[in-house]
Structures
1.
Amino acid sequence: MKKFPTKADLRIELQTQIDDYTRQGGEINHIPRGLSGRDNPQESLQTPLFDGPKTSRTPIPEVIAALDSRGKKNTGSKKPGQARRKEKIIFDDFGEPLRKVWVEE
């Protein structure tokens, strides 16, 4: 079974990556808490409106007919006379499962 890393392992790995980055000359900028990446954070988020004109759909009946005909070809995939088997659980007098058997439907 694969061992998943603990939070402590992840923290140590992240800290080593940060140390390697700064050792190679990388710089970490301090961003003040509460600063947003949006232009105007006091403004609410814009939700898309569906007020534009409806776009018409292009009917393609020949493609739909081809797809339907492919689905109809596979309807006779079962062989006639082939019985379907189902797993059945045999219980004892107290309701405890004893064994599983295969029965034909």
Note: The mean pLDDT is 84.
2.
Amino acid sequence: MSIEARLKELGIELPPAKPPLYAYVPVVVEGGLAWVSGQLPWTGDTTLVATGKLGAGVDIPTGQACARMCVLHGLASLRAALGSLDRVKRMVKVVGFVASHPDFTDQAQVIDGASKLLGEIFGEAGRHARSAIGMAMLPRNTPVEVEFVAAVRD
């Protein structure tokens, strides 16, 4: 089954690819890899799923929802760059950044929201290497930012 068909089967509609606000490109394709820039969990043009820090007002399920939304935005950018997600061979690496209260230690559980979604969409090809990193602060006071690398077909 194609990835585009799998998205439909799962009832997932990707948001429109969001143009960058600053001096970077959303996706760089080089050497058989697509490097997707860090994505925030936008629900619209200017609204985020949540703001704040995990362990200080933002709970783990909300953080996981943010991680999922970041992936959806990343996939939208990837589709725009590649023309179709069917060109994705596999997910290679996910890096998740979690704005965390100093006592919060469950960053990996939060980024599981991203990893599980990639698994649902891509199956075995969605399994990836990963880092989940606690941060003092993220852009726009978002609790989560996710970037990833995908292997792509020519």
Note: The chain has one domain: 3-16+33-104+127-152.
